Amino acid sequence: MISILSSRQNAEIKEDGFSACAVSLRNIGKSFGHRQVLQHIDLDITQGEFVSLIGPSGAGKSTLLRLIAGLEACSSGRMRLSSPVPERAAQIRVMFQEDRLLPWQTVLDNITLGAREQQPAALELLRAVGLQGHENDFPSTLSGGQKQRAALARALLHRPDILLLDEPFGALDAITRVSMQLLLFDMLRDHPCTVVLVTHDVEEAVVLSNRILVLRDGDIARDLVLEGAIPRDRGQADLATLKARLINELLVQEALHEAAQATSASA
Amino acid sequence: MLTPWIIPFVVLSLWLFSTTSGWIDQSILPSPITVAHAAYEQWTNNTLWTDIGVSLSRVLAGFSIGMLSGLVLGTAVGLSQFNHDLLDRSLQMLRTIPHLALVPLMILWLGIDETPRILLVALGTLFPVYINTASGIKNVDAKLLEMGKSYGLSRKELIKQIIIPGAMPSILVGIRYALGVAWLTLVIAETIASRNGIGYMVQNARELLRIDIIIFAILLYALAGWLADWLIRQIEYRVLRWNPAYKKAAGQ
Question: A168 with A223, same domain?
Fold first, then answer.
């Protein structure tokens, strides 16, 4: 049974305005030129939480992820990322939709990028993601799924505190996508961390997450905390119900948005 | 396997047939056998290897200077916007001057010894390497650079692990093209009051109306150019073996 809390309890705020959460965002805004992509984002993500960001294209999902990753600078607001290890800066790794493996380096060299000394751990990770025997192969010889496995191993080698996933399984076929999702959870058992996933796939969000944030026009429109263990069984009847409800909400939002735009245009 | 040799074989057969059967006067185009005799004559004169050696050393010296300068300038301009703003426009203006037009100036300024010949070859080599290096570096996949940064690579590591390998296909195209230009330049440069080299062999043969030696020298240039190209291709296959296109070609 999946029960939904319409929003999570507020995290305890410290004197500096931030919480002790893994990710703490305060009044974050981001604009590109005159275009405001994100506005007034307040968000706390607790350690170990698996959060999915869903929403229509252009809602600001990937931008929010890139801000947390430090790949873009905020236009306004403040952000703090915390490690569960005291006195250590939070280790963040990103896995993108494209594998972004260096085509001129072998699989093993790709995985140990920025951490050459960790070769034994890398070989172990390669075995764990089912790529043993491919250590000395170039990425061009791997399939799409194998490349993403290598990219996942590369991200996890650094034992990140926060793993940011930008539609990493979006380009994979349905079967490979499910097997990658299962692999991700296998890997997270051994390398627990806070995960933020951007996805277009509502089912993926429902199956994998403790919490779903629905973004709309650069703001968090819905913050849903889902009870129960993850990953969820795809055969659960209420999973289909929840998925339908979320899709319905997105469609209603879309219709309301279009109606609002039509009204403002006619005015 | 034999396909690339079909056209040279047909041309050689036509050449042999047309000259030995009298269709073409041998004083206009000597037969391949006469050219082979001329080659043997040059060999036994002991001048052939000296001429080839001298030409090879000129092209090697000029090519090395031009290529290194092109690599250094291309890398500097590719990596830094300041260097680009400072150098690129001037270099592009210099590039538009045909380097062979500088032959008279070179003779007046630098005399008729080795320096102007080597400098001309270096000038011909510099610009193709410069342009391909600079544009190769500028066109490195920005997504890979972003990934490298997000994995904590320093600027030095980014250059070593992402920028240079990413620009390598373009750099090698520049080097390969530059090598062709180097040989072309050498042909002209060796006509400047030379006392040795393949170009001198041609000049000498022209004065003696020895068309067979001229044709032999042209064939020598072609062979040397082809060998140099082959060498660069082997380097390409080695350096770019990660690229499936090169792997396949190397296999062939």
Answer: yes
